[in-house]
Structure formats: structure tokens, C-alpha cells
Fold each of these.
Amino acid sequence: MRQALRVLTDIDLPHVDMSFIFARGRVSRILSHAINTHVLDASQLPSLLRTARAALFPNNTLAPPRVVPSPAEALLIRRRCAETILSLTPARIQDVYFGPGGERRVKEVEEVLDVFGDSYCNKHFLYGVVELIVVRLMPELAEKGVEELLEERLS
């Protein structure tokens, strides 16, 4: 094993940081161990499920529906979001991508944020995120469908 690691670290790949690769594997093993010992432990599962249910359904009922913001509030929220994004972006990058003028920059970021105002785009985005999470948790779903896997496991 040490020889294999020595060979891998001796390879001079300027675009690959080997320490990142090894650290990522180490973190993955630590997370896997923590999930297997704490979350999937049969003695911990009832309290974990009880806590999750209490967090999702306080007082054993559904939470009150969210209040939809008025159009004026939606514009204010979008503007604050654009200003926050710009405050996190370095000035040099703002100069390159948005040009001079603070108000112009905010307007351009607001236009980009308008993409998330389309419900069709949001549905595709959320489906993509959910699919990515499911495929990361169960990689076999990327290759075969649910019915094929069920048939394979039952036969």
C-alpha cells in the first residue's frame, strides 16, 4: 500500500492536487463511518426519526403556509439578493463582467436573477438537484431504472 501511495505521489501532474484526492477519500470514509454508526444504528433510529418528525411537523401538524410576498416585496428581496451577491464578488471581477457603475451592476445581477422567476426553470433546477442527490446516494440508479433494479433484486 505504501508503495502504491509513493508511486502515486511521485507522478508529476501539474493540474491534479494529490493531497486533495487523498483528503477527499479520507473525508468520505469518515462520513460513511459516522452515518453507519450514528444514523443507521438501530438503537439511534427511533430517536432520530422522532426528532425529524418533530422538526418537520411541529405539534404533529403541518406548518402554516408561507406568506407569498407582494410584488413590491419581491422586488425588494431581489434587489437585496443582487446587492449581497455583488458584495461577495471581488471588485476586479465586477469591473470585468459588469462594467463601471454600482447601479448598473445591481441591475445586471437582477436580470440574471430573473431566470429564477420562471417556474418551469425552477422545476427543472430542483429535479436536477434531487436527481443528483439520489444518484450520489444510489449510483446504480444512474445506469438502470427503478423497475429494472426491482426486477433484478426480486429474481
Amino acid sequence: MDFGNVPPITKAYLIGAIGQCNLVTPLQLYFTYRSAFEYGQFWRVFTTFLYWGNLSLDFFFHLFFFMRYSRMLEESTFHGRRGDYVWLLMVSCTLLLILSPLSPSPFLASPLSFTLVYLWSRLNPAVRLSLFGIITITAPYLPFALCLFSWALSPSGKGWGLGVIMGDALGLVAGHWWYFWTEIWKRERGSGGRNWLETPRILVRLLDSEERLREWDEAAGRLARPAADAAAVPAGARVPA
């Protein structure tokens, strides 16, 4: 992968992840509620997503898939929408922090990579993939196949290595949370077409083009107009069909 062609959000993350290698100890990076909030070590909220563990096959496995699927999401689904992609990462990281007591590891980089793999697989359901040159599967099965492969790479021991799958499964939960509210719920009648995880305007303004900002404003105006029209109708009045 040519690092110079990596899109900016993915590149910034990789620089942060690589930059901490051999500079600080893992004890300075892990996240727990007590260390972060009771002891005031707030940087752990961010650094827990930058540590991939000691150099090993599992390290390269998770880092490769983060690079691959983060890049593909940023270049396709979120092309020209940097604010949306940053918001996706922020929401996913927040949910993973909330779920972190369920994780067997105090580091959340691996679950974050599985969040992105899951999202890509759901947004590209028709894509067929050759998994390590062994079998061919369609994209929706990819995250679950990778969970099994991650389990196979984990050292056997207490719990049969199922703790590794638990960490990756949290990433799938975070990915499905985002997918449900942005793709499934807004198609439901009761949603009114509203995306409940809409990117804040300030992120769009800071990171995207003027054209994208106008698109955001127009979409917000379309959603606000029916509510304003409904509020303007007097009580008991009949609305013409």
C-alpha cells in the first residue's frame, strides 16, 4: 500500500498509531474508567485506540484490516465527506468506550478495526471476496470469518481463546449500531427519513467543502420543513389531500 495515496483521516490515524511505537509503554496507553476519570488521565480515552499490541501475526492481521477497510470506506462511501467519516469514528469510539468493561483487553484498537470491517461489509453486500485464497465468500460474511481467523491466531489457554472473539464482537456491535441508525432506521416509516446520527454541522464546516456544507444545509432544511408545516396547521383543521 502506497502510504502517500492513503486518504487523510486514515493516514492521520496510522501516524498516531505508529508514532507511539517504542516511545511509551502500554501501561501509559490502556483505558479503564478508574485510570481515565478517577485519576484524571484523560489521554487514555484516545490512546487506547492507537495501541495494537506487541509485534506478532495478530498485530499485523488487525492493523492490515484497519488500513484496508478504513481506506476503502474513506475513498468510496465517505468520499468528499471527511466530516462524516470523522463523526463515524467518534461515535464508534464512544460506544466502544461504553462497552469496554465487556472487553477482555484494555486496548480497543482491534474492536475499532472490526467496526470498520463490519460497516464496509454491510454497505457492499454484493461483493465477493477470496478469503486468504482458500474460500470465496460474500462481503456480509467477512467480519464473522475474520473473527474465527482471529480466534485461530490467538494463543490457546483459559477460555479457549474466546476472549479474543469477545473483543472483536464488540466492534461488530458498534458497527451494527451505526449501520442501524444511519441505513435501516431512516427507511422506517416512523423515522420520518431522519438520520439520528447526523454529522454535526460544525464538523462538516471544518473538514468539508462549501458544496458539501450546502448539501448538509439543504438536507436539514428538507427535514425541518414538514415539521414546520405541521406546526402551522391550526388544531382541528383539515389538511387537503
Amino acid sequence: MVLVELDDKSTDYAILSHRWGTEVSYEAMVGLMKMEEQERKEVMDCDGHQKITKSCKQAKRDGYKWLWIDTCCIDKRSSSELSEAINAMYRWYQNARVCYAYLNDVDEPVFPTEQDNSKFTKSNGWPEWFMRGWTLQELIAPKQVEFFNKDWVPIGNKQRLAPTLTNITRIPREVLRDGLSRKRLSVAQIMSWAARRVTTREEDRAYSLMGLFGVKMPMLYGEGKNAFQRLQLEIIRISSDHSIFAW
């Protein structure tokens, strides 16, 4: 595996969407071969590295030379690189040829079509991927989304699963099919899709929505709820939609 900077508009690439767990950072990836043998083995055996390896293998099977993964393709030690990446994230998912949505809590070889509160106890009866803040744009932006269970068995795609995805997310089927550009949507409606979703960092509740509203703003981790207020102000600046005041 190599890390290379490429143009997302002229490169055919796959992209990964997933629920974060024990991940491998950019720093760890570039320093992997310089590590002591035991440390390197620990990194390569962790779930995050296995996820990278298996998603790369899937991309290769599908004929793609390049794959983008947020955990190891952003140097988060650089605040400017992190800010640039978050502001470009929606576009990167939108321009990907295919998005692999990895559902790490799905055991069966089929996509769950009914709510199961006994199995998915912490995520309203559905796979946890559907309750995370960042995965909202990662579902909407790409034209093609392929879902995989925890063993990387393919369990369906966005087009075929559209009725179930609409039931889970409340996102209209035409938005799942065509994205946001073909349908006039109110700010309140888009906000409602995110209402039940959660993020680890409070600020990411706002940052994860920027691409959906077409706004850009600098990242200020540590600002807490002020991030959402800044998001609202940016939306007001570019939109005359008063439904935002419902939030």
C-alpha cells in the first residue's frame, strides 16, 4: 500500500465509509516499516488495519487502483490539512466511483430489512452506521454505495435497498437516487435527517453537515455548541430559507 496525493476530479477511485473503532492513523501508516517488529505486528493485527487491507482488496477486485480512507489519508496532526479535508469531504465522496459502506455490526449475509432492537440495542434497532453523523453525507453524496457486512460479504447497494434505506433514514428515494441537486429541499428537512444521529465530538454535529448545505467554514475543535451556531449563520448567509429557524 502507498499513500499518494491525487486529483479527485480526474482520478477513478473508491472510497470507504465506516464506523470508527480501533483505527490506523496517517502517522502510523507512513511509519509502519520503521517500527519494531512487535509494534508493527500489533498495528497490522488491529481491526483498523484489517479494514484498510480488505477494502483495498475489494477496490482492486472492482478494478480501482486507488482507495481513499479517512482514517489514514488525512494527517490529523496538521490543523490546516484537517480543515481542508473536512471542507472537501462531501466533494470527495461525491466524486468517488463507488463508496464501500462497511457495517461492522451486521453478521448475516443479507441486509437487515426490519428494525431489531434486541440486536442493535444502541442504535434504534438498525446498524450503528445509520446513527452516526458523518455517514449521512457519505450515504447521500456518492452515486454508487455498496454495503458490506462485518466479513466483507456484499449485502446490497443503495439503488436496490432504497425502500429500506428510506425507512431507516427518512431520506426520500429520489434523493438517494439523484443526490441533493435534483430536488428542492428545505433546510429543516435536511436537518431532520441528522436529528437522531450522533458524533463523538460535539463540533462534528455541525462539521458533518457542511457539505450537505454547500457551506465552508474553518474547523475550531474546542468551540463546542458554537460550531452549530456558526453553521446556521453560514446557511443564513447563502440561503433565504426561513425553515432554518426551526432549529
Amino acid sequence: MSKRKHLGGIKEAEKMKRRMERVKVEMKEISKEQESIRKGQGEVKEKFKVIELECEQLRRQTDIMIRQSLNTQLRLCLIFQILKAREMSHFTKAASLTRILREVIAKQGKEK
């Protein structure tokens, strides 16, 4: 083997070695980036779970508020009908509506 070919082979080997070192460094950087991405994904997943729990809690609170509003509307409607019946001197109807109102109030009290 001539000296020239031998030196050329050594230079190629050195180039290859430098390339391999660069590849190793790049692989370490990529590995760090991937770990950072995994960590970020975990954090996002946790935050998403917290948000889901908060949404569920808000849904339950909204349902409670809707039920309370409907119960209030029912009571007001009965009270208005009782007043109207008394105004029209329909005391039997007023007594019946008053009994229904008491039952509604008692039922709602048990639900709480």
C-alpha cells in the first residue's frame, strides 16, 4: 500500500470518527429533547385531568342550580294560583293548592 493511500485512509478514518462523535452528541441532544417532550406531555395530561374534574364539578353545580330554579318556579306558581283563588273566593281550590304547596315543600326538604 502506498503512503498516499495509507494517509488517505487515515484521514477518512478521522473524518468518520468526527462524524460519529457529532452523531453521538446529536443523539444525546435528541434524547434530552424527547425526555423534555415526555415530561411536558405528562404535565399537560395532569392539567387536562384537573380541568375535566373542574368541568364535572361545574356541571353538577349547574344541575343543582337548575333544579333549585325549577323548584322555586313551581312554588311561585302555586303561591300565585293560591292568591288568585282566594281573590276569586275559591277557598276550596285555594285550600287544595295550599296542601299541594306544603307537599312540594316537604318533598323538596327531604331531597336536600
